Amino acid sequence: RRLYLDTHALVCLLEANGFTTQQSEVIVSALVKIMSTNLDMIYKDMVTKVQQEIALQQVMSHIGGVKKDMIILEKSEFSALRSENEKIKLELQQIKKQVMDEITKVRADNKLNLNLEKSRVKELHAQQDRALTQTDRKIDTEVADLKTMLESHKLDNIKYLAGSVFTCLTVALGFYRLWI
């Protein structure tokens, strides 16, 4: 914290440029005081290496705590996602069973109707075949729609999982950025 300045050389320089000895000494004395005050203010704002190491250790411990919290949060989010996925799977299985029961009922009804119609009128045989084909197409369309819906739910779950992971990562990086 010392100011290294050749005051005698500065006084001589000022005298060489037209100042008196007394004026030169007063100017140099004022400059030395100003520079000392400025250096004191600068050193007040500076941190020692020990203080810096302590602050770094504190920041690192906070980061470690945040990492632990993030791991706990991540595990709880994953378990919540798993339970939600299990619920959705059960719901889909129930819906699939209901659809299959309905399909079975529709097919049974259609077969019964076809047998009755065949026995009554043979001329309507061609129309009944078309009706059966249309019903099968509707059933296939419904099954395809259900498969599409199942895939959509799977994709939504994957998106939700990816969003959660990226959100956690963003929060972790945000904390990391704040502390560094």
From TrEMBL:
- Gene Ontology process terms (BP): calcium import into the mitochondrion; positive regulation of mitochondrial calcium ion concentration
Q: Check the record and name the Gene3D superfamilies matching this protein.
A: 1.20.5.340
Alphabetical list of InterPro entries matching this protein? CCDC90-like (IPR024461)
Q: Which UniProt keywords apply?
A: Coiled coil, Membrane, Mitochondrion, Transmembrane, Transmembrane helix
Domain of life assignment: Eukaryota
Name where it's found.
Mitochondrion membrane
Q: Where are the transmembrane segments?
A: 160-179
PANTHER family listed in its UniProt record: MITOCHONDRIAL CALCIUM UNIPORTER REGULATOR 1 (PTHR14360:SF11), PROTEIN FMP32, MITOCHONDRIAL (PTHR14360)
- Which named protein is this? MCUR1 regulator
Origin species, per record, is Platysteira castanea
